[in-house]
Amino acid sequence: MGLLSDPNRRRALTSLLTRLNTPLCVLCYLAGVAWFMGLAFEPFTLRTYMSENAMGSTMVEERFTGGERALSAAREFAVHKKKAGGMPVEWLVQAMQSRGLEVYTQTFSRTLPFPDESKERYMVKGTNVYGILRAPRAPRTESLVLSAPCSPGTANNQAVGLLLSLAQYFRGQIYWAKDLIFLVNDHDLIGMEAWLEGYHDVNITGISAQPLQGRGGSIQAALSLELSSDVITSLDLVLEGLNGQLPNLDLTNLFYAFCQKTGILCTIQGKLQRNDWDTVAGYTHSVQTMLLMVLRQASGRPWGDHGLFLRYHIEAATVRGINSFRQYKTDITTVGKLLEGMYRKLNNLLERLHQSYFFYLLPSLSRFVSIGYYMPAFSLLALILLLRALDLWVQLSTPIAGLEDGTVEGEEVSGPGVLSLVTPVLISHLTGVALYILPVLSQHAAVQHFPVSETEAVVLTAITIYVAGLALPHNTHRVLSGEGTERGWRLLKLLGLLYLAVLLGCTALINFSLGFILALTQVPIAALITPHVPRLLCAGAMILLSPGCTLLLCLFLYQELQEAPLTLLEGWGLFLSAVSQGILDHHLYGSLLYPLLALFIFPCWLLLWNILFWK
């Protein structure tokens, strides 16, 4: 405390920080990137372990043998689905009733804000079918969910068949202490959202759904099952949920433990675990797996039906069967045994999963990176903003050596008026509001005047506003106050630095991956930009690191990590699809990525763009 309370020492420390400001900023950026890349190195990670005592052992005897019944039910389901042209509601109701479940249905409808061309739907109507197996040995205050989406075509028929077979098998057991809910949801995420809102008696997204006639207890955990073949080579665990939420790590540990017990190959991000961590290939594999998780989490979209459960504090994951070229095959009976073991362990829970981590990264299923390990990487990047803000504050606080008449040539001592800062801030945020509101509102007018579809109108309007924003604010500080001043851009940059630091800090606390990616691209811009740098070169760099181009670069990186590289034309098409999907996810499920970028990150970037063209 003496260092800060002593004026001389405080002045010396401030002088040191300002004198070494640029080297410290460069060092912090390199250290932050190096720290993050080092997280995938196995000696720097922690081995996964079960924190919940009730699930600490896999010593249960799985007796499920209904694989053939599951395949038979899957084939029958496929026939009736094809005949009905969608969800075979009547057949599912009869099938669940014949297996001793309390069966209920829920109809729902949803009009999308604009057509979803990727799935060719606009007016969505469907029916969810679910059956409840009441707990015979408990007061029925808690429940577990096993769901399988009714997918178009031949996809996911085996998942529904296995769900029905497990329901029949579980019906004959007497050890259940929780209600078991078997759900077949229509129209994937929309149907799941309708069912969850009906179960919890809320209406968050404006979907029109019939109230549920039957409920179980409070849902403790859920698994969504996706199987589209009679045999599989591996099971992929999908964790990323809405707005980057993740389930409790113990659910991942439970899945991994039973995969080890049953001998099923298990993957995360579609990648098998390697044991050669001390080689370059092994480290590269871990980095790729971790980066895929970061990119998925940063997208903010639910990557499976489980992603919507997390909003209601229900630990959930999606188990996806993969049938690849590998010779090792696993039959559906073994998958059923794995699910039986997991649900028997979840049945032992006396309270919600809470003892393990909710914030983590996974370079593999057996190793994890906790929040205490990865947050320093972000903190080092955010520190750059504070260092630059301190440097600007010192410059603004230092009296300017004037001429004999007390003024500096071309500069007023009184500094800029408030309006010179309010105007660019206001116009930048109004541009962000237009980017958020106008694409959906103006789609019908655009369709009437241009030969485009509604979806194309929404995406092209968003891109037009985004590009037009580059031309709007860079001279707005002169609208009301005349010529800009040297002190004016410093004040505006100080405001922008602090604003960006708060934005990134809040984002990283909610979704670390998104905050880290934005920090990687926005911090160098904020730290280096001044009106005195080469404008053409810096303008190109700023556009390349703008939020829109960051999204495009992330798409290319994601496909490269998936070993499915894109051409420029394919990348542009995927970018347009990602923009429309991001807007749809916000309106349908409440994803926060699009409003965050449009209302906050893009206006903050425009403030920095304004500084570059300050005159």
From TrEMBL:
One of its GO terms (biological process) is GPI anchor biosynthetic process. Its main location: endoplasmic reticulum. Keywords: Disulfide bond, Endoplasmic reticulum, Glycoprotein, GPI-anchor biosynthesis, Membrane, Transmembrane, Transmembrane helix. Coiled coil: none annotated. It is found in: Endoplasmic reticulum membrane. The chain crosses the membrane at residues 20-41, 371-390, 418-438, 458-476, 496-529, 536-558, 592-614. Pathway: Glycolipid biosynthesis; glycosylphosphatidylinositol-anchor biosynthesis. InterPro entries: Gaa1. Gene3D superfamilies: Zn peptidases. GO terms for cellular component: GPI-anchor transamidase complex. It comes from the Eukaryota. It is a multi-pass membrane protein. Heteropentamer. Part of the GPI-anchor transamidase complex, consisting of PIGK, PIGT, PIGS, PIGU and GAA1. Interacts with PIGK. Component of the glycosylphosphatidylinositol-anchor (GPI-anchor) transamidase (GPI-T) complex that catalyzes the formation of the linkage between a proprotein and a GPI-anchor and participates in GPI anchored protein biosynthesis. Binds GPI-anchor. This is GPI-anchor transamidase component GPAA1. It comes from Lepisosteus oculatus.
